[in-house]
Specification:
Elements: H1 27-37, E1 46-53, E2 58-62, H2 68-88, E3 97-101, E4 104-110, E5 115-121, H3 127-148
Length: 149
């Protein structure tokens, strides 16, 4: 027996969205804060910055050749995993998740409340220098978010 088909002119199975979806409540503050710190970080070593929510939504970015929405979702997942891993290991509270790849480094930091900072660096940046400049970016973002709200 063939499957039933919809007659022409029938109502769609899913409602058509009306209007534009609302932006995340922290997006405007994150965009302003990222613009404020963009020129204050070590751009020789830092190749990109991204701000995401803890539920994986993109709030603001200053990156190149990266799928920002996917990175925001992975940032939230990595902080969740780091929190569980650090807790299971009895090492206190997670302060970040750092990854080293053949083409560079990336670190995800919880900033404040539901905000995360993702910092990207060149492959020739040492892990020590990356840690210093990434924490500088974190401090600048925290200050910008605090004074901007």
């Amino acid at each position: 027996m063939p499957l039933p088909t919809r007659k022409l002119g029938a109502t769609p199975a899913f409602p058509v969205p009306q209007g534009i979806r609302e932006a995340h409540p922290d997006a405007a503050a994150a965009t302003r804060a990222l613009a404020k710190i963009r020129d204050e970080v070590d751009r020789v070593n830092i190749t990109g910055l991204l701000v995401a929510s803890r539920d994986g939504l993109l709030l603001a970015s200053d990156t190149q050749e990266i799928e920002d929405d996917s990175v925001a979702a992975m940032a939230a997942a990595s902080v969740g995993l780091a929190t569980r891993f650090i807790g299971q290991a009895g090492l206190g509270e997670a302060r970040g998740a750092m990854f080293q790849g053949s083409l560079g480094h990336v670190c995800v930091f919880p900033v404040q409340g539901p905000v995360l900072l993702v910092v990207f660096a060149r492959p020739d940046t040492t892990m020590g220098l990356f840690n210093v400049v990434a924490r500088q970016a974190l401090t600048l973002l925290q200050d910008a978010l605090t004074t901007g709200n």
